[in-house]
């Protein structure tokens, strides 16, 4: 099964030129499992407002985004923009939640998972936490994400040796997606997905926004309060709103 970039599909909406699949969490998991059954590389992008704004000025990332096999709605801004276009999306499908659910599936079905990214020690700790939460979860390797792009092929060889079905790369947008594309022929994971700050959350290094912030769709504000360096990303949010309001419905 492939969901390639045919924007005319009723299950896809285009937001500022970027495709987003209108699937909920359970449907997304079914598609990801079908990707594993196909046994060939698939790129999954988790689309948030900031990433869509970044794609506007980065032709390489824009191309990757458009060619992805699946693009999930990862922020409330994306949900709002889809609704405004008359193509509503039922729920957010975030990278953090997907990693968690796939670790649960791995415990049942044995899927092989690799965690690549975040500061030294963080991916390993995140993997430990996931093994405790989902006993039997088959995380076959974990490694930090601080290496230069000219080492991508060497790191990819290390990852390939563990033969993962799912590769989660937490190195920030768009570096993580560029790493995945550059190395998919070496690693050959059936599903590769950029998951931003997920390992920081699982490891406990960063706390996920309390339910109160989540309910008010203020996770971005929580992240900014935790890490003021995120201001560059937060500045993309008003830009996203402005661009959407200016764009045709
Ligand atoms: N990171 C990394 N390598 C780098 C730069 C960043 O592994 O060269 C990690 C960083 O430690 C953090 C993640 O990438 O864990 C990015 O998290 P962020 O919340 O910024 O992701 P985004 O907002 O892009 O989803």
What sequence of helices (H) and strands (E) makes up the elements?
EEHEHHEHHEHEHEHEHHHHH
What percentage of residues falls in helices of 4 or more residues?
A: 40-55%
Which class best fits the helix and strand makeup?
A: alpha/beta
Describe the strand arrangement of the main beta sheet, using strand numbers: 4-3-8-7-5-6
Radius of gyration: 17 Å
Q: Unreliable segments (pLDDT under 50, ≥5 consecutive)?
A: 4-9
Mean pLDDT: 94
- Inertia-based shape: globular
> Into which percentage range does the β-strand content fall?
5-15%
Number of domains: 1
Ions, cofactors, ligands: which are bound? Answer: uridine-5'-diphosphate
Task: Offer a quick outline of the entry.
The chain has 249 residues and is an alpha/beta fold.
Verbal overview:
- This protein is an alpha/beta fold and 249 residues long.
- The chain has one domain.
- Helix content is 49%, strand content 15%.
- The protein is built from 13 helices and 8 strands.
- It has helices spanning 25-38, 49-56, 59-67, 76-84, 95-109, 122-133, 152-160, 175-187, 198-203, 211-215, 219-226, 231-234, 236-246; strands at residues 12-15, 18-21, 42-47, 70-73, 113-117, 139-143, 166-170, 191-194.
- Strands 4-3-8-7-5-6 form a 6-stranded parallel β-sheet, with helices on both faces.
- β7, α8 and β8 (191-194) form a beta-alpha-beta unit.
- The longest helix has 15 residues, at 95-109.
- The relative contact order is 0.15.
- The model is unreliable at 4-9 (pLDDT under 50).
- Residues 117-119, 145-146, 170-173, 175, 196-197, 199-200, 233 line the site of uridine-5'-diphosphate (UDP).
């Amino acid at each position: 099964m492939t969901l390639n970039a045919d924007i005319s599909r009723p299950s896809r909406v285009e937001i500022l030129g970027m495709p987003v699949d209108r699937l909920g969490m359970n449907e997304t998991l079914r598609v990801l499992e079908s990707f594993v059954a196909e046994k060939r590389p698939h790129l999954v992008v988790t689309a948030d407002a900031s990433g869509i704004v970044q794609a506007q000025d980065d032709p390489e990332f824009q191309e990757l985004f458009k060619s992805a096999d699946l693009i999930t709605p990862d922020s409330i801004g994306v949900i709002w923009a889809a609704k405004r276009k008359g193509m509503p999306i039922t729920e957010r499908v975030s990278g953090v939640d997907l990693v968690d659910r796939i670790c649960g599936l791995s415990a049942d079905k044995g899927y092989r998972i690799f965690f690549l990214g975040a500061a030294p020690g963080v991916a390993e700790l995140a993997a430990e936490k996931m093994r405790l939460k989902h006993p039997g979860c088959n995380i076959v390797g974990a490694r930090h994400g601080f290496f230069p792009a000219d080492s991508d092929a060497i790191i990819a060889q290390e990852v390939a040796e563990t033969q993962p079905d799912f590769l989660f790369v937490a190195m920030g947008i768009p570096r993580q997606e560029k790493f995945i594309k550059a190395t998919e022929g070496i690693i050959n994971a059936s599903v590769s997905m950029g998951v931003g700050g997920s390992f920081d959350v699982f490891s406990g290094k960063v706390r996920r926004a309390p339910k109160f912030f989540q309910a008010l769709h203020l996770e971005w504000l929580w992240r900014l309060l935790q890490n003021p360096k995120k201001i560059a990303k937060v500045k993309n949010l008003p830009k996203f709103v402005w661009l959407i309001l200016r764009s045709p419905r």
